[in-house]
Automatic annotation (TrEMBL):
Keywords: Coiled coil, Signal. It comes from the Bacteria. SUPFAM superfamilies: Helical backbone' metal receptor. PANTHER family: MOLYBDATE-BINDING PROTEIN MOLA (PTHR30535:SF34), VITAMIN B12-BINDING PROTEIN (PTHR30535). The keyword Signal applies. Residues 145-316 form the Fe/B12 periplasmic-binding domain. Residues 186-213 form a coiled coil. Residues 1-42 form the signal peptide. It comes from Aminithiophilus ramosus. It holds the Pfam family Peripla_BP_2. This is Iron ABC transporter substrate-binding protein.
C-alpha cells in the first residue's frame, strides 16, 4: 500500500504589460528615456496587489520570504542584496543540507525579519536599518500572505512559484527570470536556466539507449519531508531516478513523473525486493535508534532483501531541505546513474561532479563539507552491521 502526499503549488496570475491610459508629455518621454533601462527590468513584473512594479533601476536591497526564495537569489549571485533573513538562516544545526547557506554562513549575521516558511513580520521589516525595495515571496499564501504583507509594509511583494525540475520547470524558470529582471541579473538567470537544461540533457543521454531489462529495480528510502523519516518514506517520481531513466520499483503500482512524498508498507517493499536500495541521509536526523539505517541494521524483517545481501545499499545527499535543493538533486542523479549504469558514466566522478554543480550554483565546492555533516556516508556503499 502506498499513501502519497503532494505539496500544494501556487500558480501565479497571468502577467500583463503595463497599459498606458493617456498620452505622454515631452517631459515624461525624457524621463522615460532616462529611466528606460531600470523600468525595463520590472515593467512586466506584478506585485501581490496586481500592480505593475515600477523601480527607478534595479532593486538595491531585497528580502526573500518563504521556502527556497533566498536559494534562488543566491543562484543569481545576488545574495549581497539581502537586507535581512528569516530565522532559519540563524540556526546552528549539527546537520544542514542547504548548499546555499553553507556557501554563505554570513547570512547568520544579518538582521531578522521573520520566521521561516514565509512568516514575515511587518514590524521587524519596518525597523530594518536598510529598507528593502522589494520582497520576493514563494508560496505567497503561506505564513503571512503576500497581499497582507505588502499592505502592512508598503513594500512591493513579488509572488513567486518555486517550481521544480520535473513537471513545473517552466514555473521555476519564470521565477528566476522575474528575480533577474528586478535585481538586474538577467544574464545570470539565463545562464542558470541553460545550466539546468544542459545538465538534464546530459543525464538523459547517458542511459537513453539502455533496454528495459538492463535497468535494475531500485528504491529510495528515508526521504525527508518536513522532517526526518524512516525506510518506508519514499518519493514517487524521485527526480534522480526520473532524470537517469532508473526503474523505480514503486512504479509497478504508482507510476509518476511528478515528485510526491509517500509512505509504503513493509509488505510492499519485501514483495518488490529491489536490487538497489538508496538511502536519503536526512534519515540520520530521526535519532540514534530510529531512521532507515537503524531499521536496516536492526530489523530482522529486512535481512533477506536482495539489495542488502548483495551489498547494494548506498547513501545519497538530502535534497528536500527547506524545499528542494536543485544542486543536490543533480548531484544525486549523477551518483545514481554511475551506480546503476556504469557503462554510461565512465567519465564521471560523482563527488567531483557534485562540486562542479555546487560551484556553479552557489559559488563553492561543497561535497566534502556536506558529506562530513552526514557521517561521510554519501555516494558510497553503506555498512549495515547490527548496532
Amino acid at each position: 500500500m502506498i499513501r502519497a502526499k503532494r505539496q500544494s503549488s501556487f500558480l501565479p496570475k497571468e502577467v500583463h504589460p503595463l497599459k498606458r491610459t493617456r498620452s505622454l508629455s515631452l517631459a515624461a518621454l525624457v524621463l522615460l528615456t532616462l529611466f528606460a533601462a531600470g523600468q525595463a527590468l520590472a515593467s512586466d513584473v506584478v506585485d501581490a496587489l496586481g500592480s505593475p512594479l515600477a523601480l527607478d533601476g534595479p532593486a538595491r536591497k531585497v528580502l526573500c520570504s518563504g521556502s527556497g526564495a533566498l536559494r534562488l537569489l543566491t543562484y543569481l549571485q545576488a545574495q549581497d542584496l539581502i537586507a535581512a533573513v528569516e530565522d532559519i538562516e540563524k540556526r546552528s544545526e549539527a546537520r544542514d543540507a542547504r548548499p546555499y547557506f553553507l556557501a554563505n554562513p554570513a547570512f547568520r549575521d544579518l538582521p531578522l525579519f521573520g520566521e521561516f516558511r514565509g512568516r514575515a513580520r511587518a514590524e521587524l521589516i519596518l525597523g530594518l536599518p536598510e529598507a528593502p525595495q522589494v520582497i520576493f515571496k514563494t508560496d505567497p499564501e503561506a505564513g503571512t500572505p503576500a497581499a497582507e504583507l505588502q499592505e502592512a509594509t508598503g513594500i512591493p511583494v513579488i509572488p513567486l512559484d518555486y517550481g521544480n525540475l520535473l513537471d513545473r520547470r517552466e514555473a521555476l524558470y519564470a521565477s528566476l527570470r522575474t528575480m533577474g529582471r528586478v535585481v538586474d541579473r538577467q544574464e545570470r538567470a539565463e545562464a542558470v536556466i541553460a545550466f539546468f537544461e544542459t545538465t538534464l540533457d546530459d543525464l538523459k543521454r547517458r542511459s537513453a539507449s539502455l533496454a528495459e531489462e538492463d535497468r535494475p529495480g531500485c528504491y529510495v528510502g528515508g526521504v525527508g519531508f518536513r522532517g526526518a523519516h524512516g525506510l518506508s518514506a519514499t518519493e514517487l517520481g524521485y527526480p534522480p531516478f526520473v532524470f537517469t531513466g532508473a526503474r523505480a520499483v514503486t512504479e509497478e503500482e504508482a507510476p509518476s513523473d511528478r515528485a510526491s512524498h509517500a509512505e509504503i508498507s513493509r509488505e510492499k517493499l519485501l514483495a518488490w525486493d529491489p536490487q538497489y536500495l538508496f538511502i536519503d541521509l536526512s534519515t540520520l536526523n530521526a535519532g540514534e535508534r530510529a531512521g532507515a539505517l537503524y531499521e536496516l541494521k536492526n530489523t530482522p524483517l529486512w535481512k533477506d532483501l536482495r539489495a542488502l545481501k548483495e551489498g547494494h545499499v548506498y547513501g545519497l545527499l538530502p535534497y528536500n531541505w527547506y524545499t528542494q535543493n536543485f544542486g543536490s538533486i543533480l548531484a544525486d542523479a549523477y551518483f545514481v546513474g554511475k551506480t546503476l549504469f556504469p557503462q554510461g558514466y565512465g567519465d564521471v566522478d560523482p563527488a567531483a561532479k557534485a562540486d562542479e554543480i555546487y560551484l556553479f550554483l552557489v559559488g563553492k565546492a561543497l561535497f566534502s563539507e556536506m558529506n562530513d555533516l552526514f557521517g561521510g556516508l554519501a555516494f558510497r556503499p553503506l555498512s549495515l552491521t547490527q548496532d
